[in-house]
């Protein structure tokens, strides 16, 4: 069967797909977009069901893109679109002509299963605003082998195209849950997980913490950091040493450094 071809960027399907760039559109349709060959490959590898793929051969960056389309033909519904139509649905500059559509999944605490054979390492992100920061934090959490990422009162959603891109596809393999801070701290307490708030007013340096047991690192928003009520709920307040004029680091960099301090403490050479 010959694949459908959409020429016009005014096509109703193209207009509907362009709404996936906005949170309201994603929420209404229950769908999200995965743009780019690398991201879509990781999405499929993680077992996420791809409902359909839109592609524009004129925008392919390599033969690998053509090979990918050939490999999924007959397995996933395909639709070829013009360059103008693809630019309408794309969320990035320098797009590579690959665009997948997937169904959103549940992101509740009930979906989080903690390991029984090793201590948990959890990243809690409170009110992170910028999609690029959230995506980078997910990437760092994945790289550190974190058990899960818990999003407290999220301002941006994990299905934001910029989050997916910045995460390098980690959003598909990580365990992620969204909840209020009350629900998250109840979950952590019930599972015996010690909480560490990263805050400028702390006196304890992260190097002096013991992350060998189950731990949750709690990071606040880019502008305001953690609110006092969340700091008060944590077991310890910690900071990174700042030796220059700057009094803080980008939230993703700070989270990465603390996560990998936990990795350093737990790491054993074989």
Rg result: 21 Å
Low-confidence stretches: none
Would you tell me which CATH topology of the largest domain applies?
Alpha/beta knot
Overall tally of domains: 2
CATH class placement of the largest domain: Alpha Beta
- The CATH superfamily of the largest domain is known as SPOUT methyltransferase, trefoil knot domain
Mean pLDDT: 94
Class derived from helix and strand content: alpha/beta
Task: Please list the strands of the largest sheet in the order they lie side by side.
Answer: 8-7-6-11-9-12-10
Helix tally equals 11
CATH architecture of the largest domain, by name, is 3-Layer(aba) Sandwich
Task: Please give the largest β-sheet.
Answer: 7 strands, parallel
Helix content: 25-40%
Strand count: 12
Q: Estimate the global geometry from the Cα principal axes.
A: elongated
- What is the ordering of alpha helices and beta strands? EHHEHEHEHEEHEHHEHEEEHEH
The N- to C-terminal Cα distance equals 54 Å
Task: Please outline what is shown here.
The chain is α/β, with parallel strands linked by helices and 270 residues long. It is built from 11 helices and 12 strands. Helix content is 35%, strand content 20%.
Topology:
Blueprint: E1 4-6, H1 12-18, H2 23-29, E2 31-35, H3 37-45, E3 50-55, H4 63-72, E4 78-81, H5 83-89, E5 98-103, E6 121-126, H6 131-143, E7 148-152, H7 161-166, H8 170-173, E8 176-179, H9 181-190, E9 194-198, E10 204-205, E11 215-219, H10 228-233, E12 236-239, H11 251-266
Parallel strand pairs: 1-4, 3-4, 6-7, 6-11, 7-8, 9-11, 9-12, 10-12
Antiparallel strand pairs: 2-5, 3-5
Helix pairs in contact: 1-5, 6-11
């Amino acid at each position: 069967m010959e694949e459908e071809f959409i020429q016009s960027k005014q096509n109703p399907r193209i207009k509907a797909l362009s709404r996936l760039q906005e949170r309201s559109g994603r929420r209404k349709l229950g769908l999200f977009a995965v743009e780019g060959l690398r991201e879509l490959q990781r999405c499929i590898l993680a077992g996420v069901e791809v409902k359909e793929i839109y592609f524009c051969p004129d925008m392919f960056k390599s033969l690998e893109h053509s090979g990918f389309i050939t490999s999924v033909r007959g397995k996933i519904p395909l639709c070829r679109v013009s360059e103008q139509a693809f630019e309408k649905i794309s969320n990035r500059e320098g797009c590579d002509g690959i665009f997948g559509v997937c169904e959103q999944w549940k992101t509740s605490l009930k979906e989080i299963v903690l390991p029984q054979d090793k201590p948990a390492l959890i990243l809690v992100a409170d009110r992170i605003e910028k999609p690029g920061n959230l995506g980078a934090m997910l990437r760092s959490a994945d790289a550190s082998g974190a058990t899960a990422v818990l999003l407290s009162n999220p301002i941006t959603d994990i299905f934001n195209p910029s989050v997916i891109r910045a995460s390098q596809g980690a959003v598909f393999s990580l365990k992620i849950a969204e909840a209020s801070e009350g629900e998250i701290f109840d979950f952590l307490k019930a599972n015996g997980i010690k909480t560490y708030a990263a805050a400028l007013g702390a006196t304890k340096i992260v190097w002096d913490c013991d992350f060998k047991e189950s731990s949750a690192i709690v990071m606040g928003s880019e502008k305001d950091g953690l609110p006092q009520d969340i700091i008060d709920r944590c077991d310890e307040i910690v900071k990174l040493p700042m030796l220059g004029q700057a009094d803080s680091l980008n939230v993703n960099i700070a989270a990465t450094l603390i996560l990998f301090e936990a990795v350093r403490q737990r790491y054993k050479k074989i």
